[in-house]
Automatic annotation (TrEMBL), chain A:
Protein name: Fatty acid desaturase
Any one Gene Ontology molecular-function term assigned to this protein's record: oxidoreductase activity, acting on paired donors, with oxidation of a pair of donors resulting in the reduction of molecular oxygen to two molecules of water
Domain Fatty acid desaturase intervals: 69-335
A GO cellular-component term linked to this record: membrane
Top-level division of the source organism's lineage: Bacteria
The organism of origin for this protein: Pseudonocardia sulfidoxydans NBRC 16205
TrEMBL record, chain B:
Pfam families noted in UniProt: FAD_binding_6, Fer2, NAD_binding_1
Domain FAD-binding FR-type intervals: 34-135
Molecular function GO terms recorded: 2 iron, 2 sulfur cluster binding; metal ion binding; oxidoreductase activity
Presence of the UniProt keyword Flavoprotein in the record: yes
Keyword Iron set for record: yes
UniProt source species: Pseudonocardia sulfidoxydans NBRC 16205
Protein name: Oxidoreductase
Alphabetized Gene3D superfamilies for the sequence: 3.10.20.30, Nucleotide-binding domain of ferredoxin-NADP reductase (FNR) module (3.40.50.80), Translation factors (2.40.30.10)
CDD domains linked: fer2, FNR_iron_sulfur_binding_2
Cofactors: FAD
Amino acid sequence: MRTTTGVADAHLTEEQVDALGAELDAIRASVVDSLGEADAHYIRTVVRVQRGLEAGGRTLLLFSRVPAAWVAGTAALSVAKILENMELGHNILHGQWDWMRDPDIHSTTWEWDHASPSQMWKRSHNYEHHTFTNVRGKDRDLGYAIMRVTPEQPWHPAYLLQPIYNIGLSAFFEWAIAIYDIEFDRVQEGTKSWDDAKAEMKTIWRKARTQLAKDYVLFPLLSGRGAVSTLTANAAAALVRNVWSHAVIFCGHFPDGVETFDEARLENESRGQWYIRQLLGSANLTGGPLFHIMTGNLSHQIEHHLFPDVPSNRYAEIAPQVQDVCRRYGLPYSAGSLPRQYATVLRRLARLAFPGGHKRYGGSPAPVRRLRPRTGVRLPAVARRAA
Amino acid sequence: MAPLARRVLAAARALTTPLLPEDFVSVWRPLRSRRAPGARVVDVRRETADATTLLLRSGTRLPAHRPGQFVGLGVQVDGVWTWRSYSITSRPGDPLLAVTVTAVPGGLVSTRLAHQTRPGTLVRISEPSGEFLLPAATPEKLLFVTAGSGITPVMGMLRTLAARNPAALDGAVHVHSDRTAADVVFGPELRTLAARTGMRLVERHTATQGRVCPDALTDLVPDWTARHTWACGPADMLDDLTDHWERVGDPSALHVERFRPPTWDDATGTGGRVTFATSGITADAGEGEPLMAAGEAAGALLPAGCRMGICHTCVGPLRSGAVRDLLTGDTHDTAGQPVRTCVSAPLGDVTIDL
C-alpha cells in the first residue's frame, strides 16, 4: 500500500506506478545498450571545443587592451567556462561517461573549473540532491538553505531580502555553491562539527586560491600593460558563467508547476514512486540544440533527474518518450522557455519573501505544456485530475 | 629535471589549473597524455591468415621491456577502452614496439585488432611486464617449445639473441607446432634465423603429423634434461609438459607462459553485488564473473595488467565478503586480504578497497 502521494500523482494505483517504473527502466536500458562510438566522439569533441575556446580566449585576452580582443576573448572564455562547468564538469562528475573507461574523462579523475572541489561537490549533489530531490528538509538544494522557495517552508524575516540577495547569489554562484557545500546550517543546528567544517573550508581554499590566482593574478600579469583589462575580462567571463548557470539551475526545480514533497513521501518509496518524484520535482527548458548544450543539457532537467548517469547528449532523444509516458499516465511534464520559467522563479522568490504564499508555489502544478490527454490509452485508464 | 624546466612546468600548471598542461596538449597531440600513454600504429604486417603484427610508435618514451614480456594494449571498441595483453616481438631498443595479434575465434578485440587495424590508429600501452624471461646469463643449452601463437614471446627472445648473442643459439633447439607450414607465424624468418645461427628448428605440422606429446618431444630432443626450456602454447600442451618435467625432469628448468586465462569450469563464484569502495561504484557480477570484469562493465577504472592472474597489478584488499580465486579454487574471506580482481569471483556481496 502506498503511504503517501504527491498532488499530481494521487490518481495512480500501485500497479500503475510499478508499470510506469518498468517503462522508464526500459527507456534507460535501451539507451545504455546503444552507447558507442558516436557518443564517445561527441564528448571528446566537446572537450576539444572547450579547450580550444579556453586557449583561444585566453590568448586573445593577452591583448585585451584592444577592445575587439577584449570582447572576443571574453566571449570565448565565457562560453568555455560555461561548457566546462555544465556539459563537461557536471555531467562527467555524474559518471555519465564512466562507461568509456577513459581515465581522462571519468568521474573519479575529473577536476573542474569551480571553487568547489569535485569530490566534495559530488557528495552534496549526486547523493543528497539527486536522491532526496525536492523533499523538504532532506534536499538542501531546495532553496540552498538560504531561500524560501515553497510556501511550506516556515517564513523568517531574513527572507524579506531574498529577491535582493538572489542577485548576489547569481553573480557569485560558484562561490555560493562552495560555501553551501560546507553546510554551515548543519553546523549551526549541531549535526555537523566545527572541525569538519573547518577542514572542508581549508580544502576549498586550497583549490579556490589556485583558481583565483590564475584568473586574477597570473593571466593579468602575463598581459603586461593590459593587466587590468584582462582582469576585468576574466571577471566578466566568470560573471557570465555564474549568472547563466544560476538561471538554468534555478529553472530546474523552482519554477511554477514543480512539486515539493513531505519527508513521509520517502517511506517505502518504490522505484516507480522515486521516478514520479523526480518527474514532478523537475522542469525542462525549451530551445534548440545549441541552447541545450550550453545548459549542459540541464534544459532536460526531467530526463536528467530520471537518469542522472545517462550521457547528456541522449536526453533530447529520450524526452519525447518520457513525455509520452507522462501523457499516458496523466502526469504533468513541465517545460517552458528560459525567460518564461525564470520569470516565474523570480516572481516566486518575491512572493515567498513574505509570509504565506499560494498553493501554486509548490502545490498542484499549474501550466503544463505539450500535454494533451490522449484517447485510446494502452495502459490501464487513468483518471486525470483537474489541475 | 633542471630547476628552470621545473619552474616553467610549475608556471604552466598554474595557468591550466585545475587541469594539467598535458590535458591541453593531448587535445592536439593525443599521444602525449601522461595519464594514459598512447601509441600510434605506424605499420600493419599480415603474418598469416589470422595473425597480424602491429608496429607502434610510442607518444612518449618507449617503455623498456625484456624479451619475453607482454604489454597491455588499450583499444577503443564501440567507444569503450578495452585492454588486452600481447607479447612483445620487437627487441629492446628497437625504435618501434611490435606486437603480434592472432585473431581468436569469437574474440571481439583480437579479431578487430588483427583484421581491422589501419595504420594511424591510436592505442594506449601499459608498462611491459611478465616473468617469462631469459636469465641475465644465457644458459648454454636452450630448448624452446612453442605452438601456434605461443611463438610470440619466444620470437622476442630469438630476435634479441640473434642480434646480441648469436652463439647462444648455436646448438639450441626450437620445436614449434602449428597446423600447416602456411600457418606458422614468422615461418620464413624462423627458418632463416635457424640456418644463420645454427639453431635446430623442428617444425611440426599438426594437420598431418599430429600433436607433439612429451614422449615425442623427448625423442626429438634426446638431451632435453640437460637443457633449460621455455615453453608457450595452448594450456593443455603446457599442462602436459609441466607434468612431464615434474615426473621425470627438473621442474625448475622449465619456464612456461600461459597467455590465455585458464578455463574456470571447476572453480566458480556464485555471483553477487561488488562495491568498489574508492569510486563508490557497484556492479552485479554473474556466476563465476571476476570482480574486474564486473567492475569494468559498470564503468569502474580499476588497476589492470595481464588479466589472467599473473602480474598482480590488479590486486586490491578485500574489505568485506568472500571471493573465490578462479585459478586456485581458494576462498578468501578475510578483511584486508589482497585479492587479484581479474581472477577472483564474488561469493555473494563483496566490498573491495579499489
